[in-house]
């Protein structure tokens, strides 16, 4: 059960890293346009999932 309570915080940390990485990718044009759009979509999905965890009371 302890592992299940730690997972939302892991998701939060992963989302922060993904959003930061997406910003760097767009600023420095590291990847192709398609890969950058894909990474942006993943970041948006991560933000949405983290928001749902917060609304449901698993974070904060």
What is the compact description of this entry?
The chain has helices at about 1-30, 35-55. It is mainly α.
Order of SSEs: HH
Rounded average pLDDT: 94
The biggest beta sheet reads: none
* Helix and strand composition category: mainly alpha
CA-based shape: elongated
Distance from first to last alpha carbon: 18 Å
**How many distinct folded domains?**
1
Give the strand tally. Answer: 0
What percent of residues are in strands? under 5%
- Give the helix tally: 2
Keywords: Membrane, Transmembrane, Transmembrane helix
Transmembrane segments: 37-59
How would you describe the overall organization of this protein?
The structure is a single chain. The chain is built from two helices and no strands. It is an all-alpha fold. The longest helix is centred in the first third of the chain and has 27 residues. The mean pLDDT is 94.
């Amino acid at each position: 059960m302890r592992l299940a309570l730690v997972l939302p915080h892991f998701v939060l940390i992963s989302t922060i890293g993904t959003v930061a990485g997406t910003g760097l990718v767009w600023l420095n044009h590291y990847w192709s346009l398609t890969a950058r759009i894909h990474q942006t979509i993943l970041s948006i999905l991560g933000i949405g999932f983290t928001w749902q965890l917060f609304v449901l009371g698993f974070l904060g």
